[in-house]
Amino acid sequence: MPLHLQNHKPLAFLSGRFSGASSRWPIPDKEAFAIVESCKRLEYILLRPQGFVIHTDHRNLAYLFNPTATDSKMQRHQADRLLRWAMTLSGYRYTIVHIPGHTNTWADMISRWHCSAKHNLTPDPAAALRGPNSRTRHTNAKNDTSAIDHTPHSSQSHPPLSSTKASVNAITIPPAAPLNAANFQWPSWVDIDQAQKPFRSNSHGAGPPPDVTWNASTRCFCDGKGRIWIPPNATDLKTRLCVVAHAGLSGHRGTQATFQPLKELYVWQGMESDVIAFCRRCLQCLTVRGNIIPRPLGTQLHATRPNELLHFDYLTLPLDRATNDNYILVIKDDASGFCLLHPCQAATAENCASALCHWFSLFGIVKTWVTDRGAHFKNEVISALSQALSTQHHFSTAYSPWSNGTIEVLNRQLLRCVITMMIERQLQPNQWSCLVPAVQTALIHMPSDRIGGRAPVTAFTGLPAMSPIMATIAGTFEVLAMSTDDMSEDLTNHLNATALALTNMHREMAKSSDSRRMQAQSRRSRRSTPPCFSIGDFVLVGVVCQHLPKLALQWRGPKLIVEALSEWIYVVEDIAEPKTRSTHHASRLCLFAESKFMATEDIVNYARYTDGGHCVRSITQMRTNDTAYDLLVNWIGLEDIESTWEPI
């Protein structure tokens, strides 16, 4: 059937504005982007068994989306962009049909619709960030073009302003540095007048809410408290008001500090929700917040029987003047909590291997080890020992000490015990090595709630725990005379009873330990947020240094998630050249925008600023003057003509 005889009805309208780097794209790229973005946003409509038809008045569109056809004169970045879009469209079943421009009536009329540049209200405030982003609105009206007029006039009355529901075009992501932008316009009476003008004429039967009336003195709509009413479709005006109330001289204060002065002068439906969303997505505020986001505890290796899993770590202490020891190597059994302490002068792989061999000579080879990623554990010596003994060496997450919390808890108990005994005996901090045997005795003979009130030495060896209080009772010993056969039988019965008792004790101990562990995870999960990241999301990365300068940024980015190594570990990539990659735990990541977000030049420059500026590609020349030396620096991501002279 000819195109002009087909009965087409609109299902959705998409529109947007090119800004930043996207405004300098070639015309074919802009027309190609409109097709790709429409397919992505309307995927739930276009995934059909019979496919769909794309009508366009661009003859070369099929050529642009052909990955095997390349243009030798095309810029590399342009060819890469078209290839990525072609791969996106490859997941759809579609047919491209060229139609002449004079028959493409409605699309041509909408694209030429007049809109004043001075009062161009962006329906989606994040459109300026995403570049050619789009908004979606559904309608059943035939040939409806009211989407160009931002928000259609409704004949229904507005809900009361006291409603807490957010406005239709909710404020989501504020610009990176709006007050520094050259095109930022401060809200004025002209903008308010233009926003309220359609409601004064009442040509479409629309009007303000019942509690808003015309104020003759201010010549605008106000509520009963004299606050200026902002219409629901004036999203750009709302965004600029939030910018003025939050950024600049307002000091990027909290939500209430931003909302309080704003609600004294203005009012609109869902104001508080909009302000909360604006402040939570402010890029500057996200950059200076704390660098750890609580996440639910993940799974960790644990043993069900003694001598099945070992944890070991070095604890640094002051240099002992008698032995020159500076470290204690702590080796702990996971199931029972039994430990051995090895003072040493340096945290080396040789000392670690020697201490492990000592444990294995006493209690047997343990098949699974858990440590952090220190150089004294992750090296060829420990790897060769593990391979020779046919064991598995598991490393905890980098910069996440809680992932190896079993040994960290023991280190804390050990340090507290050393300090208290040192104070009790009035020793100096450099005299701690003589206390190691007494500290180890206290740790392994101390009852633990985690294993049902038993001491680690009892849970590991079956021997009764020793307590100093037992010395207050004088013991008596009785010597029994028995034959060799009776003694052998008595010993056999004792060993069988001991083995049975140990088996039952280990079973109860594992059950008690698992129960307490699940309770601790449940308590933490109530105070934490599960990670919800996907490939392509934009995130901020927390700085892991514990002692930052007071004016240092807590978060850097935005960066792009390119790979998920596990549920908790993600690989991120810089959005600025040279696009280096790094691996981070989910607690160090903060979601900034989802994958549909398009990073503009403004966002890229901000990410480059948080990372310390451009990276040096090469130094080509040097010059001198009366006071200093200057170097001609070529920057990664910039052309040679943009090289700058930098002082040394």
Q: Summed up, what is this model?
A:
This protein is an alpha+beta fold and 648 residues long. The chain has 18 helices and 21 strands.
Task: Give a structural overview.
The chain is α+β, with helices and mostly antiparallel strands and about 650 residues long. The protein has 5 domains: about 150 residues, no CATH class; about 120 residues, no CATH class; about 160 residues, Ribonuclease H-like superfamily/Ribonuclease H (Nucleotidyltransferase, domain 5, 2-Layer Sandwich); about 80 residues, SH3 type barrels; about 35 residues, Beta Barrel (OB fold (Dihydrolipoamide Acetyltransferase, E2P)), CATH 2.40.50. It contains 18 helices and 21 strands. It has a 5-stranded mixed β-sheet, with helices on both faces. The chain has a 5-stranded antiparallel β-sheet with strand order 17-16-15-14-18. A hairpin with a 4-residue loop joins β5 and β6. The radius of gyration is 35 Å and the shape is elongated.
Described by the principal axes of the CA atoms, the overall outline is: elongated
Number of strands: 21
Distance between the termini: 73 Å
Number of domains: 5
Order of strands, widest sheet: 11-10-9-12-13
CATH topology of the largest domain: Nucleotidyltransferase, domain 5
Low-confidence stretches: 66-70, 114-170
Report the average pLDDT across residues.
76
Domain Integrase catalytic: 302-464
Domain Chromo: 598-648
Organism: Aphanomyces euteiches
InterPro entries: Chromo/chromo_shadow_dom (IPR000953), DNA/RNA_pol_sf (IPR043502), Integrase_cat-core (IPR001584), Integrase_H2C2 (IPR041588), Retrovirus_Pol_polyprotein (IPR050951), RNaseH-like_sf (IPR012337), RNaseH_sf (IPR036397), RT_RNaseH (IPR041373)
